[in-house]
Amino acid sequence: MSMFAEATESRSLKEVLAIVRHVPFRVAACLMIIGLFALAAVAPKVLQTHDPLAIDLRSSLQSPSIAHWLGTDQLGRDLYSRVVEGAGQSLAIGLGATALSMSIAIVFGVAAALSGGVCDSILSRIVDVLFAIPTLLLALVFVTVFGPSVLTEVIAVGIGTAPGYARMIRGQVLAIKGTGYVEAAKVLGHPFPRIVWRHILPNAMNPLTAMMTIGVGQAIIWASGLAFLGLGVAPPAPEWGALLNAGRNYVIYAWWLEIIPGLAVTAFALSLTIIGRHLQDRLEGKT
């Protein structure tokens, strides 16, 4: 038994090493960056060096040093610890907005593609109208009406990005519902809900997996833009967009207050985009 277990373990290790060997260096580096941000989101205390909300006016606007790795803000709060603390809120907004937008898109896209006729035309026109409105403008209107908060940011960005996903899902479903295996399932007498659930939806969503990965990064950028305009999470929450908004008045003599949060947003969104493009290439190859 032990020899069999050792052989199985050795084979599993070889399979893992083979997978790792075929991962491009840029993708591996991006996975490490995403893992670091995920750790910051889940367990920020592990990475923090100071209390992110502790005010120390004697240390205000200090440049990066050994005591404060990324400097301090206008109230003497450690910027590194605040960026680490803000990873959780930014990631939650990105994931929540993407999940909401995909849920809305699935309802509209699948309903339009499967219904056809007048219903398809009406739903498609609604999606086209929403798609014509700039995402940031739509989000701005929503946040202005309902007030700034994490929840309204998630809903605003989710609604603003849903039309693009809806058009892609509709196109995928239209292409799949006429394929041979769907027709075969109909001939075999499978119920239509089962055909949709077992055959159409999984195959329609498969190519969108990469787009969802990219969408999380885009949602974080949109949310940061709202917060930069003062329509995001209220202070003293260290969400990355809020940090950019708070530091813009000191950019001339405290550059780190703008550069560091901006680099965090850029690194996270760029890493997700590279990983998403890699997944897209792999999935298209399998298709």
UniProtKB/TrEMBL annotation:
Residues in ABC transmembrane type-1 domain copies: 87-276
One record GO biological process: transmembrane transport
Localization annotation: Cell membrane
Pfam family, one: BPD_transp_1
Membrane protein topology class: Multi-pass membrane protein
Family statement: Belongs to the binding-protein-dependent transport system permease family.
Classification via InterPro entries: BP-dependent_transpt_permease, MetI-like, MetI-like_sf
Protein name per Swiss-Prot or TrEMBL: ABC transporter permease
Keywords, ordered alphabetically: Cell membrane, Membrane, Transmembrane, Transmembrane helix, Transport
Keyword flag Transport: yes
PANTHER family for this protein: OLIGOPEPTIDE TRANSPORT SYSTEM PERMEASE PROTEIN APPC, PEPTIDE ABC TRANSPORTER PERMEASE PROTEIN
Transmembrane segments: 23-43, 91-114, 126-144, 208-233, 253-276
Example of a GO cellular component annotation carried by this entry: plasma membrane
